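G., before I forget:
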Amino acid sequence: MGIRAILSSHLPNGQFGRHSLCLAAVGREIMKLDTSGLESAASLFGASSELFDGFATAPSFELPVTNDFDGFQKEAIQMVKPAKGTTTLAFIFKEGVMVAADSRASMGGYISSQSVKKIIEINPYMLGTMAGGAADCQFWHRNLGIKCRLHELANKRRISVTGASKLLANILYSYRGMGLSVGTMIAGWDETGPGLYYVDSEGGRLKGTRFSVGSGSPYAYGVLDSGYRYDLSIEEAAELARRAIYHATFRDGASGGVASVYYVGPNGWKKLSGDDVGELHYKYYPVMPSTVEQEMVEVSGA
Amino acid sequence: MTKQQANWSPYDNNGGSCVAIAGADYCVIAADTRMSTGYSILTREYSKICKLAEKSVMASSGFQADVKALQKHLAARHLIYQHQHNKHMSCPAMAQLLSNTLYYKRFFPYYAFNVLGGLDSEGKGCVYTYDAVGSYERVGYSAQGSGSTLIMPFLDNQLKSPSPLLLPAQDAVTPLSELEAVDLIKTVFASATERDIYTGDKLEIVVLNADGIRREYMELRKD
């Protein structure tokens, strides 16, 4: 604005018009801040509208040009063979929410990893579990974490578990039928107390107190349902969760690795244990030395 | 009327294997140089390794046209990052970028099986392993490609470290020295070449450490 002031003091009013417009334009150019450096590349992917409206839009994905979208997806998934096969569980009890999962990722019959983090820390008081496609779960949980943070910044308070699970369910519903594979549980502690929701890629969203998801879930349910009581202590609940995961990894080939157990309480989540299921087996069923009936002896000579 | 099947596929598999091993202050990334299609060899001297940033090197097997497109995309994004932030991307940042880039093509995937190696901000070696749609994990070592099912069990036997998920946490640094790791890589590829038809010709090894980048080659069986 200083340039305009200097200009007006030197030129008569008549000539003020055109020249000043140019120089005022120049003046504006000089005053204007170049914010292109602050734009993240996220705008390339259509995510910039998140900052402007309350309803964050999903990133836009390019789609293959084909008549047979389903067939193409089937073939692509066959070729790509994303990692799935798992056991995860979560339940609400008197003290809060207990969440547990195994850590095996399988691609068909091949174990691609024994150390996958299937319990995703969305924020310090909310956890999500991963079952189904590993990339789908990782990406959309991270996206959910971003949305939860934006909610906190926009509303000056934390998002509820109900709200977070609804955000995720709506996103997954909009991609329904396109081949995403997500079976997740959102567990957290908000103003109303402990919360647990099951959300999947078919668009389903269920509120509940006990869930298990994955190929090993029938086995986990057996142990979980028979041992569950609302008034368990934290140690008892953790042991129940650990046992349920162990038994599922014992019988389900697609589950294994390390059984992780997390607790969500009024102060947020805390990781309670991470035990190799092979070692848990010998802890629960130690090898007993048994009496020998017949003992083989070395025969010397020919 | 039976459903029409597509008689042209946009994908092809050019074969090959890639391996990366992370050490206390180094990272070794290696890949063979054979490019094939079906039972034919297209060339014996194709590099599958690409330097993305000062301390990040990616090796990819699968469909090399998709790999080339992916490398170009990442190089362009890295250049933009350098202009905006006045520094190179760190390896963990590049790892996340690669994951997102792969996932944005979730419905028309890059047929690329990647392994990213480098040094993290503390100078320790890091290896990230990916599936074709972007799920990733930081590990101590990894193998991808047609020979991965032959190579991984051997690396598990030699390098297996306690899982990072265990609590109480156990230290997971690979105890091998840089020379031992390079030697292990050579052994591993020689064995994979014996039993995998898509792996062979020549081995390209890239070693990243505090002094910079070093490249080495070794001849493999050409049959």
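The first strand of chain B starts at residue 17 and ends at 22. The two ends of chain B are 46 Å apart (CA to CA).

More on Monday.
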